[in-house]
Amino acid sequence: MIELNAVTKTYGETTVVDSVTTTIPAGGLTSIIGPNGAGKSTLLGLISRLLPMDGGSVSVGGLDVAGTPSKTLARTLSILRQENQVSLRLRVRDLVTFGRFPHTGGRPTSEDRVHVEAALAHLDLTELADRYLDELSGGQRQRAFIAMVLAQDTDYILLDEPLNNLDMKHSVEMMRLMRGLADEAGKTVVVVLHDINFASSYSDTILAMRQGALTAQGSPDQIMRTEVLSQIYDLEIPIHEVAGKRIGVYFS
Amino acid sequence: MAKTALTPAAKAPAQSPARRRVLGSASRLTLLIWGLAILAVASIVLFLSWDLLGNISFALRLRGTRVGAMILCAVAVAVSTLAFQTVTANRILTPSIMGMDALYTLLQTVMVFAFGAVAWTTAPDTARFGVELVLMVGFSLLLYRAMFTGRAGSLHLLLLVGIVLGTLFRGMAGLMQKLMDPSEFTMLQDLFFASFNRVDPPLLGLGAVVVAACVVVIWRMRHTLDVMALGRDTAVGLGVDHRRVVTTVLVVCSLLVATSTALVGPVTFFGLLVVSLAYRMAAGADHGQLIVVASLLGVLTLVAGQFVVEQFAGNSTTLSVVVEFVGGIVFLILLLRGALK
């Protein structure tokens, strides 16, 4: 369970996350949606202790993120941000092996190698494992970073726009993978998504943000309504039921 | 049928070059390290033994002191630059470019100014050097810690800050030296005129202890440094205490820069030169390997360079000038190629 209590972040005079209080249930897939600049990524950064809070508190699985040592947190919670640059020349397998760093430091054991190979296979990267990161396409690199997060093998997995750079096939595979992590491995997955229809089709819970505040939280059925979405996006979005999923048609 | 026949055939060439490349690069790195080690040892032997005339034991002691200082300086500068660039997430700033060696010179001047040249230069080396190191660490943390532990700032701004700090420290030291009693200034000059040609022997043993301790600290951190190279956010996500690692590296860098400056004087672009070369030659290496490659390259550059300058250029120039010239060009190339982005 992730508990947020009056979480606030300001940059100078601007409040980017405005006193957010909520609970994200353990297990299942939770999506955070909202327009650009709503504070979604910042909120994820605050939950994952990458950004210092200006007020409030967050606890993940009972650990207070401000007070718990980084290394302990790294065995409970993993985070992938949008922009990932690497200054070393690394192979895919080396990068994924870094996911084991919180568990064994720099000396991977044979058990670590099993985790790494499983993560590589999960993301369809086994064939590319010996390639250098700078030889990969944007989508392949994105998958390599997600494999690193999988290898970290934490109960809580936070991903900031994991569908960036991915084509339709890999987007769907990514969402299925996260669904599988929640259903089969019992992980708690929190993702920032831009596409409301992916959020609708795969999440258990949706958090909607606007201008730094949490405006709505609930199941896809509760959030995927024209009147709720128009409050979030300032856009009239008709909702259709397609194959049992609520789909917003926002193209016209 | 056609499909099943295709699959293994299509897979085989996709895998084997990759595997060959892995083997190739691992053995290439080992080869590189051994090659550099042999060259470095050869240059040391050559430097010690070339044209050895007269009182051999005296000449050897003299040359040995200088080789020792060069090795210490090379390792100190290479290791500090490498670690500094990794924790500050760039390939262009170095402790020297951020003004650390100018800070050390300023501290030396201030101490002479405050205690008087006679008291300061006649104090035991251990005490003098110890006080200088403590001050150096304190002021470095005060100046640089906040700069590098927060969110990554603009590299342009940091570079500018470094240049301004360096100029400021040099200017302040210059002013104090002008205000000094001329006889005191002469004694202070003795402290400053350390160079590759003229090493301060009593400091050599002390310097060796400091450099060895610092290298051990960085060596033990080498896996953490690999993780730091993934960027701040990823490193924190993997459980690295970013603030603590940056602070440790800054402390180690200030100690290494102080030692190297005390031994052979300031060398601004030397670190940039050897570390850029190391990254080029050892692509795909981790920090353990990079530390070895950069240190060996440093030793090779200094000892072989000094040998050539002395024996073949007839001491018509000094090694510092050559190293700064080449290093400066590397700095310009890096700038022009957009390393600041």
TrEMBL record, chain A:
**Alphabetical list of Pfam families matching this protein:** ABC_tran
PROSITE patterns, per this entry? ABC_TRANSPORTER_1, ABC_TRANSPORTER_2
| SMART domains in the record | AAA
This protein's membrane topology, according to the annotation, is: Peripheral membrane protein
* Recorded GO CC terms: plasma membrane
**Record keywords:** ATP-binding, Cell membrane, Ion transport, Iron, Iron transport, Membrane, Nucleotide-binding, Transport
State its location(s): Cell membrane
Which protein is depicted?
Answer: ATP-binding cassette domain-containing protein
Q: What is the lineage of its organism?
A: Bacteria, Bacillati, Actinomycetota, Actinomycetes, Micrococcales
UniProtKB/TrEMBL annotation, chain B:
Topology relative to the membrane:
Multi-pass membrane protein
Task: Name the UniProt key words of this record, in alphabetical order.
Answer: Cell membrane, Membrane, Transmembrane, Transmembrane helix, Transport
A Gene Ontology molecular-function term?
transmembrane transporter activity
Compartment(s) where it occurs, according to its Swiss-Prot or TrEMBL record: Cell membrane
What is the superkingdom listed in this entry's lineage? Bacteria
Family per similarity comment: Belongs to the binding-protein-dependent transport system permease family. FecCD subfamily.
Q: Which organism is it from?
A: Galactobacter caseinivorans
Bilayer-crossing residues are 29-49, 69-90, 102-123, 129-148, 155-173, 202-219, 249-278, 290-309, 321-340
Protein name, entry field? Enterobactin ABC transporter permease
